[in-house]
Amino acid sequence: MTDAPAHRILVVEDSPTQALQLQMTLERQGWSVTVCGDAESALEQLGRTMPDLAMVDYHLPRMNGDEFVRRVRLDMRTRGLPVLMLTDSHAADRERQGFDSGADAYVPKSVDTDILLSRVGALLRKGALPRPISQAPVAFRQSRLLVVDDSPTYLFFITAQLQDDGHEVVGVSSGREALETIAKEKFDCIVVDLVMPEMSGTELCQRLDMLRRQHDRLFQIIILTSRDSKEDMMRGLEAGADDFVGKASESEILKARIRALLRRKFLHEENLRISGEFRDKELELERTRDERRIAQERAAMTEALERSHAELEAAYRELQDTQSQLVQAAKMASLGALVAGIAHELNNPLAFVGNHLGTIARCLDNVAPEMEGHLSDKGARDLDKMRQRLDAVRLGVDRVEDLVVKLRTFSRLDEAEVKEVEVEESLESVLTLLQHKLSSRITVERKFNGPKRVTCQPGPLNQVLMNVVGNAIDAIDGAGTITLETARNGSMFHLSVRDTGHGIPAAIRDRICEPFFTTKPVGAGTGLGLSISYSIIQRHRGRLTFHSEEGQGTEVVIEIPMDGTSAAGPAAGEAGPVSPADPRTDTVARPASRSV
């Protein structure tokens, strides 16, 4: 047994010699031993540290071993503590009393040491104590008694008897003094003399019973009387007493009655404590359930809010997109109206100038033969100069007329109905309007190999051409070239706008069609051009793709159906075609905005 674990053993023995002998024997086995000389100090020790085994002498001062075991078994937290009862008697009734009290084993003190150690080892092998309901310290304490008797001699006698039984006793001589003491201190049991001056024992019982009912005080009441009559007993019990004992009886009977009442009181307190702990556990469990339910509801609410937030964000983005399209459409419509107005205002004086210019030319041709023979050399030179200037004026008027025609073409931006359009004419009108940005630094190459006419919405298509060509011009910092190429790709009209600019950086290629995204300086771009252009091409069930390599330029490809049957937009529940990725280059085919 030398390698046995360091179990903790509590030895309750009033004989110092026997206690020391037991301690040395047990410690030689490697066990930790604590010695208490009486039951009261042992109960206090249990309140501090819970041992693995208690070895209790049956004969102890004030409180015997069997009563100690009963107190231990009353408390739920110490109920599973193994107890070995020790006695110097082999009497069968002692052994029976020890087991009846709740002891796990019974060993005479004279037993062989090996047998004693075997008993101890067997109890320790039963395993650890069951997990207590509460981890709170065990609140064992000495019971407190109040004795009320007007006889100083009997009061001294009974107080001494009860103190020898292990109780803390306070004695008073009257009912009034008893009530004052109870108001200030707590007691487990009150022993009341039946016959007292001023306030009888019966009246005091009534007031004590009312006090414990009103204030939820837990104490027992015993009436002591020298008149052991049935009528007195009935009156006392009806007044609220818990027991009735005659003074003529042996003091051991009173002690036994008090111990029985105290056991019932302590058991009641333990039941209340356990009920309270169960109630607290239930409340904690219910609180845990509530917290879990609240957490689940919060999670569900958060998920719903996130969904709502996502839906709101999507609706907000759609609203922004729609608003941007409306703003741009209104802007382009206003621009179209302005261009149409300018073209109209230019057309009237231009017709006036053209008509009079023809008249002047005819008149000059009529009078010139008559004047030529009469003019000096200087006059002949002036006449020739007049003819040259007249031709120059005619050339200027023709150019202005061409500009007016192109302005009228561009002014169809607000036309939403589907009709046939001369694509090359629309491109030329856009180039005319952007001529101030082209100047002489940018060369425009035209490779018109595709169909001349295509069915579409003229106004929105002109808006797309304006945005794409304008971006191509802005992408070229110095001198460069823009190539416009048309072709037919099956049933689709194919238009390519390719520039020799700086290209689109890889980091922003996925964003070039996002509404309000732009790399232009503040005030130079809104970030709406390509986003709106993408929407317009999608409405035509076409494709808008971008092929770009940084430093080598960008190509924008526009494809729309030739017949224009889907130019009004996809049917409900259908989606426009998505442009495939080009394996040769980086391709963007999403509502991204190249206002770069």
From TrEMBL:
The keyword NAD does not apply. Its EC number is 2.7.13.3. The keyword Phosphoprotein applies. Residues 8-124, 144-262 form the Response regulatory domain. Residues 278-332 form a coiled coil. Residues 563-596 are annotated as: Disordered. The lineage of its organism: Bacteria, Pseudomonadati, Pseudomonadota, Alphaproteobacteria, Rhodospirillales. GO terms for molecular function: phosphorelay sensor kinase activity. It catalyses: ATP + protein L-histidine = ADP + protein N-phospho-L-histidine. InterPro entries: CheY-like_superfamily, HATPase_C_sf, HATPase_dom, His_kinase_dom, HisK_dim/P_dom, HisK_dim/P_sf, Sig_transdc_His_kin-like_C, Sig_transdc_resp-reg_receiver. The modification 4-aspartylphosphate is found at D57, D193. This is histidine kinase. PROSITE patterns: HIS_KIN (PS50109), RESPONSE_REGULATORY (PS50110). Residues 567-581 have a biased composition (Low complexity). Keywords: Coiled coil, Kinase, Phosphoprotein, Transferase. It is an enzyme of class 2 (transferase). Residues 341-564 form the Histidine kinase domain. It comes from Nitrospirillum iridis.
